[in-house]
From TrEMBL:
It comes from Bosea lupini. Keywords: Methyltransferase, S-adenosyl-L-methionine, Transferase. Pfam families: Dimerisation, Methyltransf_2. Residues 118-325 form the O-methyltransferase C-terminal domain. This is O-methyltransferase.
Length: 345
């Protein structure tokens, strides 16, 4: 048979996965809206109809039902045979105050400030200036210093991450009685409070930028009152306090490119004499595996602050360029690794 007589095969359609990736923002905003309306928390109290939920939030039942139907299809909430909506295990992660709540992450990641920054990603790639700065005319941390609401959202999200670190990473870090721990850029003191609690006889210094409102972790504030800790204000780009026995950089260096991170490390070297320990707690990517969550996180650092995620090898190269020597790298049962480095001897 002549091939010309055969009907032409239809052209292949667009890749389904690509279509799903393009449209993923729709579900993202449905999740954000559900959290804002308090739907997951309401369902924790028991099954509810769309009408009952709409009455509770002061909304229109027919519109809310369409939102809820999509969340059912995405397995974020459930629906029983009577048509009532109910909580499923995933729902609990969208309830404020739950031990594993992702609400701080929702509010931080989906902040409109960030959305406007992502719109400038192409310009960043051309110019090299962080997209957040292009969108808002100010570097990320400078903006937080003048926007109390944005600072509060950032602090809550950082506290949630610190809580995860406390449960996994902190157990791998030990200090001796009498040592002073300096937490460089330690936020509200959540991580330092737990390090001090787990290591009796130690004292701590929280080194942070001055803020319009000082909101410390309550446990850290208690340690300040007890005389085991204090707050020292300053920028690690200008100097790092001397006098510590151990310096912790938790999720700090990934905020910056190699040049800016090098300035921080140079100040650390200038402030110390040689026997001090330096500890990095950070995500360390595996370049051989190329996990989407890692490359996505790397882009977030780039867009917001011009930073980057690094592999353990890249951290070691960065440290070597600043005159330090990597002593050990310890993986944990989390995305975070613990890298300890020292002055060369």
């Amino acid at each position: 048979m002549n091939d010309l007589s055969r009907p032409a095969a239809p052209p292949p359609g667009p890749p389904l996965r690509l279509l799903q990736q393009i449209a993923a923002y729709r579900t993202t905003y449905c999740i954000r809206t559900a959290v804002e309306l308090g739907i997951p928390a309401a369902l924790q109290e028991g099954p509810r109809t769309a009408g009952e939920l709409a009455e509770r939030i002061g909304g229109k039942a027919e519109l809310l039902a369409r939102l809820l139907g999509h969340l059912v299809n995405e397995e974020i909430i459930g629906r029983d045979d009577a048509g009532r909506y109910l909580a499923v295990p995933t729902t609990r992660a969208l309830v404020p105050g739950h031990p594993h709540s992702l609400v701080p992450w929702v509010r931080f990641e989906l902040d409109p400030l960030h959305g406007r920054a992502w719109e400038r990603l192409g310009e960043q790639i051309k110019s090299g200036t962080p997209a957040f700065e292009l969108a808002h005319g100010s570097p990320f941390f400078s903006w937080l210093g003048q926007d109390e609401a944005a600072q509060a959202r950032f602090d809550i999200q950082m506290r949630a991450i610190a809580t995860a670190l406390i449960g996994v990473a902190v157990r791998h870090i030990q200090f001796s009685a009498g040592e002073t721990i300096v937490d460089v850029g330690g936020g509200d003191g959540s991580l330092l409070a737990e390090l001090l609690r787990r290591n009796p006889g130690t004292s701590g210094v929280l080194y942070e930028l001055p803020r319009a409102t000082e909101a410390l972790n309550p446990h850290f504030a208690e340690l300040v009152q007890a005389g085991r800790a204090r707050v020292q204000h300053g920028s690690f780009f200008d100097e790092i306090p001397s006098g510590g026995d151990a310096y912790v950089f938790s999720r700090i260096l990934h905020d910056f490119d190699d040049k800016a991170a090098g300035r921080i490390l140079a100040n650390a070297k200038a402030a110390t004499q040689g026997p001090e320990r330096f500890i990095v707690v950070d995500i360390m990517v595996d370049p051989a595996r190329g996990r989407p969550n890692e490359t996505s996180q790397d882009l977030l650092m780039m867009v917001l602050m011009g930073g980057q995620e690094r592999s353990a090898g890249e951290f070691s190269q960065l440290l070597a360029a600043s005159g330090f020597k990597t002593a050990s790298v310890t993986p944990t049962a989390s995305p975070f690794h613990i890298l300890e480095f020292r002055h060369p001897r």
